[in-house]
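[audit] Reproducing an earlier prediction to check determinism. Same input, same settings, fresh worker. If the tokens differ from the archived copy the diff job will pick it up downstream; this log only records the rerun itself.
[audit] input (739 residues):
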Amino acid sequence: MTWLSWLGRRFTSARALCVVLLLALLFFRVTDPLPLEELRLRTFDIFQVIKPRVAKLRPAVIVDIDEASLRKLGQWPWPRTRVADLITSLTKLGAAAIAFDVVFSEPDRLSPALAADLYRDLDEETRNKLRALPSNDQVMAEAIKQSGRVVLGETGLPTVQPLSDAQPLPVGVAAVGGDPKSFIPSFDGLLQNVPTLESAAAGRGLFTVLPERDGIVRRVPMVMQAQGKVMPSLSFETLRVATGNSTILVRMNADGIKGVALPGFEMPTDRNGQLWVHFAPHDQARYVSAVDVLEGRIPADRFSRRLVIIGTSAAGLLDLKTTPNNPAMPGVEIHAQVLESILSNSMLSQPWYAVALELAAALLLGVTIIVLAPILGPMVLLLFGVAFIALLVGSSWYLFTEQQLLIDFTFPLLSSLLIYLTLVFTNFVKEQAQRRQIRSAFGQYLSPTLVEQLAQSPEKLVLGGEARDMTIMFSDVRGFTTISEIYKDDPQGLTALMNSFLTPLTNAIIDRKGTIDKYMGDAIMAFWNAPLYDPTHELNACEAALDMLERVERLNREREAAAKASGTLFIPINIGVGINTGRCVVGNMGSDLRFDYSVLGDSVNLASRLEGQCKSYGLPIIIGSRTANAAKDRFALLELDFIAVKGKKEPEVVYSIVGRDDLANSGRFQRWRELNMNMLSRYRSRDWAGALAAVEQGLAADEENRFKTLYNIYYERIRTFQVTPPPDDWDGAYALDSK
């Protein structure tokens, strides 16, 4: 048998179902619905919680409009002259770029010209002087222009906004390999700064951060589209301004955006141009209070050649975000951490082949489970599963920590778990169906206890033919023809009689752990030691035979009483029982269309022959030598003969069960057995005269005429042998002519 043919034979419906499930799961991963994506994201969160990024470099400094600054300098927004002072101070301290995580979308309401119209009781000369002063926006714009390194922040909005008439920046977005517009995050509206400020800025970037569906920020867009304009993010634009580049590059592939770049910097992104941020823990050392900068308390080396981001950590200004390892991080710090990741080359990425690896791992593990689960034992399969899980988790963890790659292991584990549970469930359903089948198949001829044992442990049932030592019983009604003639005009009455007769006999067999093979009219065939092993099957069969006689006797007494009451004829029911023990084949016997659980073998035939001889010997129970050898210490056994049955070459010593051990230990039975053994000894030694005398002694001792037929048989044989002696090689066996 080839391996493929062997596998084909074992390819069950459960495995076929699992193959279909595996293909469906692979398609499920390709389509990547939101629940599966969220599971993957949660896994990556756990990685970041376990091992956050270590901030070895601090290239970005946050100038924080914090609570202390608000207490000292007043509520936000501040006059833009003060913001201008902040820009001037940071420029003098050597900042490489200054970015605003705020937007100045309206003119400063504290500008002198606006104040001239706002304040009361001013003389006209003062009002004119105020109107002649430059606006706060112009002061801030001049500071921005003098700095030459300021990046203003803008934000995307869901609704269209009036666009600024500021001159566009001489910055280009070059795409290689396709058009990124269909992949990048897009906003219908764009909230800009006042034109005066925008015209003076060295760069403009979107500070919009898009949390995932669960509100956690994991990825930050590097390029976005707002109101038709493709723009860099605030952090990306800050890096461009600091490096003096005029063009940003977007690399495309067939799946979407592969990454973004500046000369000297490559940033891998997802297909939508979003950078996976490897977050470090929140650290107050990144922050410098704005009031300390304005009051000159910060040394120059704190800002020299650093990227400065101006934002707020004040809770009242509502710029708090949730990250994988921090439930409330100021939004401005996210931009700082993006710049840290880029400049320290500690960016995370999910490579284009990540999905292929996940699919390959899921396919390999799924096929392995489908092929090996029904073959391997549960413990081996468990060890294999643990080892494979450890390999997947370990590989994913290694790639995260050492290569900064995000490769998901949850999908292969989820798919393999579903396949394994499907196999378990189908096996459970199959076992339940098997148990129902066993209960249905054996419930009619096994005791409920044995049926339940088989149902709970079907492995004890070996179907299709198995050789084992068994004890076989045949029972039949004596004179059934005479009884049936009485009911020739009442077939329903005969059926009721047979049911009332077969029911107690069946119960006697089942109560002694026997299995009913079949009913043949008024006859019953039963066996022991199958389908469940029974180490005392010979004794249980003998007990069942005696129970059957007792139950028939009770039934006859009930029938006799009923006959007397109704004035009808009473004919007692008598049975003959043949029992033999030997090697048999037991299993499902029959054809493809119909079969029964039955037993075959020479020992079965001998049991049937012994039952047929009960009438000849005038005894209700006849058993074979193997049965007698096992039962000799528990029952009163009487050796009957050494016979050669028709169709069997080897003669067999046969016995009759006279009673249980209480009778066996009685003096009366001991006397019977001594007389019987004396008769058989003289008969087999050809002492015909002595044998006849022994027969006479036996008849005289048998006051109840229990063995009268037996002694008459030997009387006739001895008389015959006196006239015609047996051959010289006669071994005492008597050949039976009838079955």
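[audit] rerun output stored. Observation attached for the diff report: The first strand starts at residue 60 and ends at 64.
[audit] end
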